[in-house]
Amino acid sequence: MISALVSDELEPPTTSRQRALLEAYAEQLPFRVRQISGLAQEVVRDRATERSLRALKMAVRSLAGSSQAMGLLGFTDVARGFELYLDAHVSDLDIESNEVERRLEVHLRALKKACSDVKRRELAGLIDNKGGDGLGPERTSRVLYFISTDDAVARDLSFELGCFGFGLRRFREPAKLRQALEQTLPAAVMIDAQPFAWGLEEARSIDELRRRERLSTALFFLSCRSDLDSRLAAVRAGGDGYYVHPIDTRKLIERLDLSVRHSGADPYRILIVPADYGRGLGHALTLQRAGMSIIMVERALEVWRQLVEFRPEAILMDLALKEVGGDLLGAVIRQQDAYVDIPVIFLSTEASLEAHFKALSADADDLLVEPVDEQYLVSTLSHHVERARTLKGFVGTDSLTGLLTHSAFVARIEIEIERALRTSTDLSYAVLDVDHLNSINETFGHLSGDSVLTNLARLLERRLRGADIVGRWGGDELAVLMPETRGSDALRVLEHVREMFAGIQHRSAEEEFSPTFSCGLVTLDESGTAESLHQAARTMLTAARIQGRNRIVLATS
């Protein structure tokens, strides 16, 4: 359980929100440290420029304040030390530039080390603390509790769930399962109802526990019976889902994914651009307490950088920015096709007609007048991001696989190419297709072929990093973009996915079969475009087919 994650005067959110908030904050830390590193380089280049030094101080102070609010005190100590050094010495022009650069590098190294320690030690300690917080059982959102006496079923189910990033905790005794539920909430509980009457009895017991303790975890049945009477009996016993032997793992994983999304494991990403640092920090803390992932910047150039690196789902921006008007910056953002659908919410200290006209000129989604009620701020941001996610699901997501559509994926490629060239970092790109998919369609039916393609898409999403981007290029071709990844590293990861996919049993009405995929893999060069990257990867994919399929071919320079 989590015992102390926020300061005492703040109302603590739910336990699942706390975990999501901490993990989201840890994810954004590397971005913020890189931002500070870039600002430090600007200070070294021109120490006489007050603006660059002020921007660095603001960024370090913001990081120290937000990490303290998160309870990451070890990281806060390092950031505060950096802040004190900046206040005391950097502006002193009597100190040699080489010495300033050396001291800045020392503080930056300490900050980077503290950043890596957050997930490895400090964050893990906060999440694993067993002191108890009185908020009920913790949620383990990617685990299925399974009660069964059948070793073979448990073993096969554990393997297939593991391929898609879910764990299986198997129980033989109902009492131990109920005891585990009092400690930890999984994505769902599944009862292997053999015999069926026993399954009904155990389901009623678990459902009673759920109602008494107000637990939200789902309850599924696995049975050899598929008649209407059995399904009705399962519903009456509290069952939320019903699966028949042999289990269709794809449908189960889709249901588990739904449970994970509802558990708050995917926090909203908000970029805040304030005119007043203190007020902006107050909004940031309000939204962070609500479980959102926040980055706050004050310079227009940093806004542009974070659009690429942080990929915000909404922008909360002051209409009267000091460097450039918020309405002008908003208009520039709207000129880019990749950002035309990001909700932009302006803040203003005036409720004047002129302020509304300025917001409208930048195609704003909303205008909030300061001071903003905290609950209303959270509600407004949540509404706009949820609506944008829904629209993106309709417009930018392939209906079969759930991946990005061709146009949405190409837009992301262009953004990542721009970032890779600007930062001189690696970028790998792969094109995959299922081997002999036409034969699978002809032999087992198009529904089986669709199921194979969907399983491959889901496997890629589960086994790759959160920063990797997967899309459906067209037909049976899927594509993967891997930022900051060398070709050799991308090959190793995709080989692991290929081996996993080949081991998964797919089921049709007639029999089981194990499809494979082939893949072409390339890395970005200086003249790369979305189209040239894809064509180069397709050439490697053709080579993989010629060499016998079920393999990955990496282009060599």
Explain what the structure shows.
The protein is α/β, with parallel strands linked by helices and 557 residues long. It has 4 domains: 1-129, Four Helix Bundle (Hemerythrin (Met), subunit A), CATH 1.20.120; 138-262, Rossmann fold (3-Layer(aba) Sandwich); 268-395, Response regulator (Rossmann fold), CATH 3.40.50.2300; 406-554, Alpha-Beta Plaits (2-Layer Sandwich), CATH 3.30.70.270. The chain is built from 19 helices and 17 strands. It has a 5-stranded parallel sheet, sandwiched between helices. Helix 5 (151-163) links the parallel strand 1 and strand 2 (167-171). Helix 1 (15-45) packs antiparallel against helix 2 (50-69), helix 3 packs antiparallel against helix 4 and helix 16 packs across helix 17 (446-463). It is globular and about 80 Å long. Mean pLDDT is 80; it is low at 1-17 and 122-139.
Largest sheet: 5 strands, parallel
The tally of structural domains comes to: 4
Number of separate strands: 17
Spans of at least 5 consecutive residues whose pLDDT stays below 50 are: 1-17, 122-139
How much is the radius of gyration in Å?
A: 26 Å
Helix/strand-derived category reads alpha/beta
Overall pLDDT metric: 80
- What fold name stands as the CATH topology of the largest domain? Alpha-Beta Plaits
Count of DSSP helices?
19
What is the general shape?
A: globular
The CATH superfamily of the largest domain turns out to be: Reverse transcriptase/Diguanylate cyclase domain
CATH architecture level-2 label of the largest domain: 2-Layer Sandwich
Cα end-to-end separation: 51 Å
Strand order of the largest sheet: 2-1-3-4-5
Q: Given this structure, which CATH class of the largest domain is correct?
A: Alpha Beta
Kindly state the percentage of residues in helix: 40-55%
Strand content: 15-25%
